Amino acid sequence: MAEVQMQVTDGMADARFYLDAGDGESEAMSYGLPIRSGRLVKRLLKLSAKSRLRFDPMSRSGVFTLQHFRLVRLPQHMALSRLHKKLKRQAAPHAKTGGEPRTVDECWQVYNALFEPMRPGDAVSYERWVEDMELSQISSLEQQLEEMNGWESKPVISILLPTYNTPVVLLRECIESVLGQSYPYWQLCIADDASTRPEVRAVINEYAVADSRICYALRKHNGHISECSNSALELVSGEWVALLDHDDRLPEHALFEVVKALKEHPQAQIIYSDEDKLDLQGRRCDPFFKPDWSPDLLYSQNYMTHLLVYRHQLLREVGGFRKGYEGSQDYDLLLRCIASLPEATQKNIVHIPKVLYHWRMTEQSTAMGHERKDYATPAALCALQDFMDRCHPGVRMEVVQPGIYRARWPQPSKLPLVSLIIPTRDGLEELCTCIESILDKTTYTNYEILVVNNQSTCSHTLAYLQELETGTRYDGRIRVLSYDHPFNYSAINNFAAHHANGEVLGLINNDVEVIGPEWLSEMVSHAIRPNIGCVGAKLYYPDGSIQHAGVILGIGGVAGHSHKYFPGHSEGYFGRLRAIHNVSAVTGAVLVVEKKIYEKLGGLNIVGLPVAFNDVDFCIRAQKAGYLNLWTPFGELYHHESKTRGDEQTPEKQSRFKMECEFMEVQWGDFLRNDPFYNRNLTLASENYSLNIHCIYFKFFDI
Description:
It contains 19 helices and 28 strands. It is an alpha/beta fold. Helix 13 (428-441) links the parallel strand 17 and strand 18. The longest helix is centred in the last third of the chain and has 18 residues, at 651-668.
């Protein structure tokens, strides 16, 4: 057993052990160990008696401090027991069960995979995911045909395919991917935008002659993508319309999965799927596993993109594509369709969590980067502003970077009073830093601070609290409340909320420190929106790495912080660290919510969750009540995490934590393993958005 603890400047590192059993070192004879700064990590190593071992702390240049390193020899029965427990604990919620028990060697291979970096951008990792996970999710052709035979209705899906000087090889691949669909009830509507290469029209005519489901229009003049797409739209006779670029490909089960989703969601108006890319060699790479309907993420980026399927009637109502929005014409169309819906929900905007589209990377395509089309960003910004002017007047859209946008929601002329609740027990230094940073840096003006003294004993802290209470310190907007009962985070905040004068509550840990002056303005602007519940902030560790970027349900069994330990400057998973987006929960370390919602939901759970997960439970209840929770990267603070809480490893606290985990499991069950703002194809074993490939087995071996 290897035990390693390191402090790492970047927050994370990929360490590795190299084994030399006499034939030298090699990657094949090595063991990975992902490091999280300051966290003790352990893993089993299988060594022969005379082997030599080399330890590489990092896979790239950086600064680290080795705090603990130990190798412990374990008897075989203990090693097998640890292996068994690790696999059982990390089992994927969607892994199949049943079948033959795996051998020790097979389980050892699965165990080793747990410690390998499985980031979605890693081509090798993605190839493994396709082989081990995706193929098991796809029904066989016989199964698909059998299921289709049982469908009473088989709607026609019309596929729009605008072309212009498409390389013939790629155009053939694109059309062949439609011809290869297992679902046969489709119509391919091709519109050529006056290509100057005659071979393009020759290929279109060839395929149209060979298959009556293919129709086409040959435009006399080049009108660019919007007009060309509308020419294809004029050919549509199907009930549903799918969008396909002229050099991309559909997997053979794409339309089958779309119609299957329609059967399960008869109210659907828009359907979208996960996607990946085809590199310059035609290999699949860079998968994008998306959340379910997330309006605030859509305001930040066009995450739905491909495969996108619309009800034909909806496209007729909005008038198809708009000229003048080229480069972001798909984004504009999507926003106008959503604006035309009476209500946009997960019932009528349906996500299929499967890769149903292969987006080709070319030198001209935005698949290689949004900067490839410099006209796409202003077109997207214009489309977003049009949408906001129609649906949310007063919202101002801005560009964060190409492909990422920011919605600035307006504040009322009379700012609502915000009550910032700060529980504390001693911890004078942290409390002073917290309060002073709020007073010195916060530009939002209408707030009060409620410091809740939970049995502090330090004389310096008591003197400081006395100064706050009498108003001799700072500006008199601070009140001190005494909660003279054993520590119960939920009870303390509920107590303070009862005494708060504000229309908006801010739950604030005493060990946070304001960085950006607009943090509260930003969070309040979202919290007062009619459909928003809890709003969370971007929190950093003191070393600048990410401590909180929203909460993902199911991580570690109950919940974990998104992007934890990522470098603070990182863009995150497909720009997620720079985009306002919806999440299932946010941490109570900095949480802003309207008081009326807090009271409506009964506050935090005092009995079942006195310390841990009360914030997650509250957020889930808000979501179940119809509110959207939200995380914003534009509210930035440091979190000097749990400096005043003391040792969490005492038997009493461990027992309490276990009971709180069990409470969450009983209370929320499968919901914890199916976060709608995450994706089942991503891991629940870590916070880094890596691929869910770790537990591909059926039964554990018997020990």
